[in-house]
């Protein structure tokens, strides 16, 4: 039996019908969104047995809000202050300090549907190590709506067999977390994907719970959006993820520029435009399915789709080589 298969077998234990459960998360300056998150947590149809939060060094009222909520909540709440801890370090520390073997993971920047935790637990069977929840957009501004509408996948785009869950909506056993080596503390972005892939490599079994929905907002400015996707791509480079996908993106844009500047523009340029619109088809579909009421608002949304796609691609093309350069210098895992 391979080492991965042995770890997977060791990560499976027989669960009772009502296992005790810890919810963990990390926070950093979440004063603005934290009250709405805590309200959604209090409204869960199934409450966790405890909440463990690691604060990475907030300078606002985050810690006091959590402590005030915990003092009156029916759920045992532990707040651990760990200034300078990144997301991976915070999650690992929270899981280490959690008292129960079943761990739900989310982010304080979300709002949880009332049945979120119930749906995660309902999908946990004896032969399942990891339950992947889903996520949907929410917004308070036009920019947040634009970015979330275009970029967040639709439910029918998800293949449950290959879906890599975000740790804003996840249920995992402590043994599965341990078998994967925990969250990668050397990585600042894309840490949840690396964690997912490690569990996949170890043969741990995933289930998809589409009804376990955590809602979150996209960035609210173009600058913040570009910075976010730069960091995502830099995380890909640091962790060596998706080299073919990034290479294809560079190749497509280089070919497009060469074709646009080359001879026979009357023939080539219309074909390039059609090709780009085809490339954007998935994003147009998302925008159409989530379109706002009114023809003018819908038109405004659809006409912004290409700008969103190009901005994100340029940010990724800048971030990925920065991550590769870091990887060559640092050689993570050695």
Which sequence of strands runs across the widest sheet?
A: 3-2-1-4-7-6-8-5
Give the helices and strands as they follow along the chain: HEHEHEHEEHEHEHHEHHHHH
Count, helices: 13
CATH-assigned fold name of the largest domain? Spore Coat Polysaccharide Biosynthesis Protein SpsA, Chain A
CATH class category label of the largest domain: Alpha Beta
| Portion in helices | 40-55%
**What overall geometry do the principal axes of the alpha carbons give?**
globular
Low-confidence stretches: 5-16
Transmembrane segments: 253-281
InterPro entries: Glyco_trans_2-like, Nucleotide-diphossugar_trans
Family: Belongs to the glycosyltransferase 2 family.
Domain Glycosyltransferase 2-like: 22-134
Notes on the structure:
The chain has an eight-stranded mixed β-sheet with strand order 3-2-1-4-7-6-8-5. The protein has 334 residues and is of the alpha/beta class. The protein folds into two domains: 3-217, Spore Coat Polysaccharide Biosynthesis Protein SpsA, Chain A; 222-330, no CATH class. The protein has helices spanning 3-10, 34-42, 62-72, 87-97, 116-122, 142-151, 174-179, 191-201, 222-239, 243-261, 265-279, 281-289, 295-330; strands spanning 21-27, 50-55, 76-81, 102-106, 110-112, 130-138, 169-173, 206-217. Residues 22-134 form the Glycosyltransferase 2-like domain. Belongs to the glycosyltransferase 2 family.
Write a brief structural summary:
This protein has 334 residues and is of the alpha/beta class. The protein has helices at residues 3-10, 34-42, 62-72, 87-97, 116-122, 142-151, 174-179, 191-201, 222-239, 243-261, 265-279, 281-289, 295-330, and strands at residues 21-27, 50-55, 76-81, 102-106, 110-112, 130-138, 169-173, 206-217.
């Amino acid at each position: 039996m391979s080492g991965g298969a042995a770890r997977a077998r060791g990560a499976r234990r027989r669960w009772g019908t009502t296992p005790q459960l810890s919810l963990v998360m990390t926070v950093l300056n979440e004063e603005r969104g934290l009250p709405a998150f805590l309200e959604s947590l209090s409204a869960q149809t199934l409450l966790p047995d405890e909440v463990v939060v690691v604060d990475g060094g907030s300078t606002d009222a985050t810690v006091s809000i959590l402590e005030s909520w915990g003092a009156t909540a029916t759920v045992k709440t532990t707040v651990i202050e760990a200034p300078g801890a990144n997301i991976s370090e915070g999650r690992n520390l929270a899981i280490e300090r959690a008292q129960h073997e079943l761990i739900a993971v989310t982010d304080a920047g979300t709002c949880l549907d009332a049945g979120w935790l119930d749906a995660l637990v309902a999908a946990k069977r004896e032969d399942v190590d990891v339950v992947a929840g889903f996520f949907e957009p929410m917004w308070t501004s036009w920019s947040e709506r634009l970015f979330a509408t275009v970029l967040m996948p639709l439910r029918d785009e998800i293949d449950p067999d290959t879906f890599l869950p975000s740790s804003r909506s996840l249920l995992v056993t402590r043994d599965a977390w341990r078998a994967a080596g925990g969250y990668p503390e050397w990585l600042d972005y894309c840490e949840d994907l690396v964690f997912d892939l490690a569990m996949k490599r170890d043969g741990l079994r995933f289930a998809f719970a589409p009804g376990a929905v955590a809602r979150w907002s996209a960035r609210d400015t173009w600058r913040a959006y570009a910075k976010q996707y730069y960091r995502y791509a830099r995380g890909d480079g640091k962790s060596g993820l998706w080299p073919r996908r990034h290479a294809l993106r560079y190749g497509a844009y280089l070919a497009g520029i060469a074709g646009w500047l080359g001879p026979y523009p009357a023939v080539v340029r219309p074909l390039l435009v059609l090709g780009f619109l085809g490339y954007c088809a998935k994003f147009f579909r998302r925008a159409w399915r989530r379109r706002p009421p009114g023809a003018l608002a819908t038109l405004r949304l659809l006409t912004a789709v290409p700008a969103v796609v190009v901005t994100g691609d340029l940010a990724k093309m800048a971030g990925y080589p920065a991550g590769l350069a870091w990887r060559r210098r640092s050689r993570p895992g050695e």
